């Protein structure tokens, strides 16, 4: 079919992330123009190449600065606690579960975005898991008690409070020197992003229990969307579905590759070969983990989001994962 | 109008002192925080965030103080070589007009920032979960005051220009040469030394 | 094309003597209007909030406040008197104490202007008393003051670190050795001049071991502050940003110990800090906005393309960048020069294979050079103002030998990059 001509302005994810390199940039620069036989073209710039703060992406999308925007939604959890609801600390330990959780919550996020932000949700993606990077060899969950750990959001703070660790906040750029000097004992970030940012050079071990997947969303300004021809909308929705599948496949391949890089094995094309120890999560720790999630993490989030919100979560994400959040 | 400016001058002075006090308190909080963190592994949480707010708010309020003391940096390489007083006065008016233009735009969009935070009940992502409208509101108020003050000075400057009172205009909005700036720095040091010499 | 237009727009706006902040902001608006497909002006509210409430930038007001407190505590005057006893036996006498005091004060202060102003006031009375060659004496103060941003802590290094994602502690580590070498180079410059023309060196000052020992404790306060601020970073107590706050509390403690702490003093410190901070932040607001626009319209990529089209070798890129800053540095205000050019020159240099830490130090040296090169050099103005007589060209003349010393230092780190990098490798 012949689609009417359109030209989109897109601001994308941080350029060093695998999703940006392998999925997002090729999608907008190649897949879409080719599949639309040249009718649809897009001008995409990764947000770090514009020196924009990622916390402001949803606000910029609402202002109509760009038509489409991709963003790490947990960074927007201050604007609406629902944005971190399918990516709470430790909620899911593998990417399939994370995707299922977000799928179950899709309608809720879309509703909130349309209502408060004049923005429509189009696709969910993930990243390598958020793991602990420690200056010394980590000894498991119990070993974090009394340790200073750098985290960057409230759900991780709830998790750390549950294990008796001290949550420290500092800018990403300051973490490497802080780990090296011992200002903090551990830091939490993605298993690949930590590697590329040089965290492996100042740490001895990684504790791989996932504290989240830095779930990203692709969204569109509702005004821009409504201007489109229905045929174009249908075409794009089709494409976004395939794009979402591709992103989740990338999460799996990059996660295993990140482990390779961090332990000095090949193939390691996306990171730097490093020599850290990945301290396996012991089976008996899963019991503690479950208690932490159901206790500190869900209770903390439910308090931020309110009773109605927690109830809705139980009917969606909770049902998909078999968990119940307290309704304060 | 002169009366208005006296009031505005007082407000901006108080704004600057309060803003500085916020920074001072923030620095003390940070010291308490790192001491606790280093010695007993406890963190207050949020000292860094509060200092960020202190910087945003105090600088927004400080813009006015800097404007009144004519400390906003202008590159006056060309300006000081212009002999005509009228042309200089004109440049001073244009300079203030453009400053007002840019910060008027900043303030306009800053209102959107505060409004959005109010509508969505936004809170910070930190341990203290501060409702963002409070710091952003104080920040916006500082910007708004700066814009109003600029308008006042521009009107007074224009009136002086029309009346041909160039000296009055320079005293209000003239470019302060780098030399005068150095003199102030020196006065501050000299004041310190004087205090030293007192028994 | 875009690059040329941008430069013309910016230079015109700045040359027309409008405020630097507004000039950069308007240049952004104009460029956005003509070259961007996105309505980027709408982001200015979010951008201003997110950058000015950024914790890392709080180092700016903290070091300004730190300087304001030290300015009012008399610490500098006592330190100078002690260094006179220790350094003035060299040919050139007090001029070595000037440089030494600047280096020592610079190692606790993050700003060059504060360093030059403070030591300048303390030293100025000595010119007539001891019949020094006036221009050279003034030059030691103007040039010595610039050590404030090379020897850590340094506001300029923090800004460079934030804008380029470079580790500030690494920059600090890298700054020590060049800072020390440059101090020695400055002293050597005085030594050579005074051996060549002994009459420039002034009268010999009475010193003796008794006084040296007696005044030694006056060197302690700055050393203690140095240990607190720098030690906090390297012993894992605080991050580079937090350390600036530690400095304030330390300086307050010393002021209290001297019995100089009062409500009036605190009020003056607060007011002065906010006024200076606002002036800097206003420029930052304009500069960050312009920076986003420059990146959006792909100016940086265009410039790198241009350079790769000419197939410049890394050495030629380096030379081009150095010449650019030497030219800009004569007429541009140093902070705005730094902020407006870092997003363009840093990627170029990194692409050409230079280490970002090394480039950060090179940049600081170039900014120092700008601060004492006429016609616009903030340290020249400060020292001329303190002197309160004669002409500005005396200060310019006296600073010229130190510009040469700075150029020699720049050449040295280009030939031996290890001067900068060795500490980073050992301790980093
Ligand atoms: Na310094
Ligand atoms: Na200069």
TrEMBL record, chain B:
InterPro entries: DctQ. The chain crosses the membrane at residues 12-38, 50-68, 89-111, 138-163. It holds the Pfam family DctQ. The keyword Transcription does not apply. Residues 28-158 form the Tripartite ATP-independent periplasmic transporters DctQ component domain. Keywords: Cell inner membrane, Cell membrane, Membrane, Transmembrane, Transmembrane helix, Transport. This is TRAP transporter small permease protein.
UniProtKB/TrEMBL annotation, chain C:
Pfam families: DctM (PF06808). The chain crosses the membrane at residues 47-66, 103-124, 136-159, 171-196, 243-261, 273-294, 306-328, 360-382, 402-427. GO terms for cellular component: plasma membrane. It is a multi-pass membrane protein. Residues 8-418 form the TRAP C4-dicarboxylate transport system permease DctM subunit domain. It comes from the Bacteria. Keywords: Cell inner membrane, Cell membrane, Membrane, Transmembrane, Transmembrane helix, Transport. The keyword Transmembrane helix applies. The keyword Transport applies. It is found in: Cell inner membrane. One of its GO terms (molecular function) is transmembrane transporter activity. Coiled coil: none annotated. Part of the tripartite ATP-independent periplasmic (TRAP) transport system. The complex comprises the extracytoplasmic solute receptor protein and the two transmembrane proteins. Belongs to the TRAP transporter large permease family. This is TRAP transporter large permease protein. It comes from Reyranella soli. The lineage of its organism: Bacteria, Pseudomonadati, Pseudomonadota, Alphaproteobacteria, Hyphomicrobiales.
